[in-house]
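Render this sequence as a predicted structure.
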Amino acid sequence: MNIFKKTIFSVLLSLLVMGNVNADKIRIGTEGAYPPWNSKNEAGKLIGFEVELANWLCIYMKRDCTIVEQDWDGMIPALQMRKFDAIMAGMSITDERKKVITFSQGYADEVASLAVMKGSNLEGMDTPAGINLTKPNADAKKALKTLTGALSGKTVCTQTGTIHQNFLESGDVGSVNVRTYKTQDEVNLDLTSGRCDVALAAAVAFTDYAEKSGKSVVLVGPTFSGGAFGNGVGVGIRQTSQMGEGSEQGKKDAKLLADFNKAIDTARKNGKISELAIKWFGFDASM
């Protein structure tokens, strides 16, 4: 084999090897601004429950993964444009989102809660500890009525494009003055500065912020789940129909969904999800 042929052969072999490696790579999108689900440390490194869980799921799948930072409001469009292959960003499984992407089975529960600054007149509301909005019972309906009166005339802050915004605009608690923000950090800052009377987000987002900042943020009213709040948090994957179910990319996305479901099963059965949830949330939020 002459030098020219050897060079061509080497290049082709390198491309083949690179193609095989890239075929096994998974890019996972996360926000990096929703602690303790996902955030960044002082060095700018992505950390959090989902960052660690993503790495473990990739180990179980025997795949090489890269975690990609993405603003929340562009998360689903970026997935559809193939900037990454999956979403792990505290994204709740809702019927509305299932119209445009597919979800794995849920890996953690995300109960929502209202939060105020200590001393607010909203403290001490007489409501059940938690309500499920999938099929509201008498207690849930009574709690919603109480909240409708309590939130009347108040400014409620929340992150844009979230289940929390959807709930506040659903009419379940009347006509609410909703102020939206790009990130949860901005919600927290405006709550503590007094620009918000009350805020709505995942309960752990407020407790994590209160613990780290030392601010007197307290949860009020019931915790929320079901209905507009979805059915747990899962991995978001492109729908196979977006690329054509019989297409090569459609097959890859279908296999990726199956691989994530299998890996989540493994992580649940060996206690890894529970372990990471307790580490980051302080309680077992595994499903």
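Summary. The CA atoms of residues 1 and 91 lie 55 Å apart. The chain has ten helices and 13 strands.
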